[in-house]
C-alpha cells in the first residue's frame, strides 16, 4: 500500500496496513537539510527539498507545503521583517477601518510572489513524489487571515462589537483563498490544509455564528476543485471540536491540549482525526521511550479513522531519535501499535 493509498483508505474508513503518520515539519526540516528557517519559507526550492527529505527519511505519508502564515498577507500588501530563524514580523496591518475591510482586493496568484512560490513548491513535490504520497497544499483560514491583516486584539474586539466588519472582509478572504487553493490543486496537491488558529480563541457561540459558515464556504470551494481538506486550528479546541466536525473538513487536527478520547467522542466515529502528542513537553523534551508511550496512547484513543502526528509543528532542536521513535522508519518504537 502506498502512503497516498493509506491516507485515503483512512478517510474512507476502508482497510489499510497501518496508521498513517503525518508530522508537521517546518524549521526542523530546514535545519535537517542545512538551511535556515528563513530560507525554507522564502525559497520555494528549499521548502520542497526539505519537505521531501524529511518525508523520505522518516517514511511518513504526506509531503507538506506548510511554511509560515504570511503568504496571502503579503499579497494583500502587508510587509515584514524576516529573521533567519522565527516567523516574519509584521510592519503594518492593512485593515484599520471598516472601509479597509470592505475594500480588500481580489488576489491573482501569479501577481503575488509568495503565493506563486508555494504553488511552484507544490508542483515540484507532486512531480517527484505525488504518484506515491499525498501532497498537502496550504491556505490560511478566514479568521486567521483576518487576524493577520487586522491584528489579534482588534479582531477579537470586532467579533464582539462590529462583526459585520469581519464578515465583509471574510467574503473576499474566502474567495481569494479558494483561488489560491485551486492553483495548488492544479499544481498537484490532493489535500489542502487550512490553518485557522485564531478560531481556538473564540467560544462556541462566536465560532458557530461568525466563523463556521465561512469555513464551510472555503471547504466547498476546495472540494469543488477536486481536493480534500485538513482543518488545523492550533490551541485548545475542546469546546469547538464538535462544531468543527460539521464543516465538512475531511481531516480535523487535534492539538495536544485536547484529550483525544474526548475529541473522538465529540465528533463521532465517522470523522478522521489527526493528532496529538505534545510537541514541546513530550517530543522535544522527552526521551524516545516517553515519546513512544505518548504515541501509543494517542493511537489507542484516536479510533478507527485516525492519522497520527504531534499536535503541531516539530520544534527546532528535537532529537532525530525522538522523531524516529514515533515514525514508521528505522528506529521506530511503535511499529506494532501502528500496524492494523
Descriptive account of the structure:
This protein has 340 residues and is α/β, with parallel strands linked by helices. The chain has one domain (3-338): TIM Barrel, CATH 3.20.20.210. It has 17 helices and 10 strands. It has helices at 3-12, 27-32, 37-42, 44-58, 71-76, 98-102, 113-129, 142-150, 152-161, 163-187, 204-224, 241-244, 260-267, 279-284, 288-302, 320-326, 335-338, and strands at 20-21, 62-64, 80-81, 89-90, 134-140, 191-195, 228-232, 251-253, 272-277, 306-310. It has an 8-stranded parallel sheet. A two-stranded antiparallel sheet has the order 3-4. Strand 7 (228-232), helix 12 (241-244) and strand 8 (251-253) form a beta-alpha-beta unit. The longest helix has 25 residues, at 163-187. The radius of gyration is 19 Å and the shape is globular. The two termini are 13 Å apart. The mean pLDDT is 98.
Amino acid at each position: 500500500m502506498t502512503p497516498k493509498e493509506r491516507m485515503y483508505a483512512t478517510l474512507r474508513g476502508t482497510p489499510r496496513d497501518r496508521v498513517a503518520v503525518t508530522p508537521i515539519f517546518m524549521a526542523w526540516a530546514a535545519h535537517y537539510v542545512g538551511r535556515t528557517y528563513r530560507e525554507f519559507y522564502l525559497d520555494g526550492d528549499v521548502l520542497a527539498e526539505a519537505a521531501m527529505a524529511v518525508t523520505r527519511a522518516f517514511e511518513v505519508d504526506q509531503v507538506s507545503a506548510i511554511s509560515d502564515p504570511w503568504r496571502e498577507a503579503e499579497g494583500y500588501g502587508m510587509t515584514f521583517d524576516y529573521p533567519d530563524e522565527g516567523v516574519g514580523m509584521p510592519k503594518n496591518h492593512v485593515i484599520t477601518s471598516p472601509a479597509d475591510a470592505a475594500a480588500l482586493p481580489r488576489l491573482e496568484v501569479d501577481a503575488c510572489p509568495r503565493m506563486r512560490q508555494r504553488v511552484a513548491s507544490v508542483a515540484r513535490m507532486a512531480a517527484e513524489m505525488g504518484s506515491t504520497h499525498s501532497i498537502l497544499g496550504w491556505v490560511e483560514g478566514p479568521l486567521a487571515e483576518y487576524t493577520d491583516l487586522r491584528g489579534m486584539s482588534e479582531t477579537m474586539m470586532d467579533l464582539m462589537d462590529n462583526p459585520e466588519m469581519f464578515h465583509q472582509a471574510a467574503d473576499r478572504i474566502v474567495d481569494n483563498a479558494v483561488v489560491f487553493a485551486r492553483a495548488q490543486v492544479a499544481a498537484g496537491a490532493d489535500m489542502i490544509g487550512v490553518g485557522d488558529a485564531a478560531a481556538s480563541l473564540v467560544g462556541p457561540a462566536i465560532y458557530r455564528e461568525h466563523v463556521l459558515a465561512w469555513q464551510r464556504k472555503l471547504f466547498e470551494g476546495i472540494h469543488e476543485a477536486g481536493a480534500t481538506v485538513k482543518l488545523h486550528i492550533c490551541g485548545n479546541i475542546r469546546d469547538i471540536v464538535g462544531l468543527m466536525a460539521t464543516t465538512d473538513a475531511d481531516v480535523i487536527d487535534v492539538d495536544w491540549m485536547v484529550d483525544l478520547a474526548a475529541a473522538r467522542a465529540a465528533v463521532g466515529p465517522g470523522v478522521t482525526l489527526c493528532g496529538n502528542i505534545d510537541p514541546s513537553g513530550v517530543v522535544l523534551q522527552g526521551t524516545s521511550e516517553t515519546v513512544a508511550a505518548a504515541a501509543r496512547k494517542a493511537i489507542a484513543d484516536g479510533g478507527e479513522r485516525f492519522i497520527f502526528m504531534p499536535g503541531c509543528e516539530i520544534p527546532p532542536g528535537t532529537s532525530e531519535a525522538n522523531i524516529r521513535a514515533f515514525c514508521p522508519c528505522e528506529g521506530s518504537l511503535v511499529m506494532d501499535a501502528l500496524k492494523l
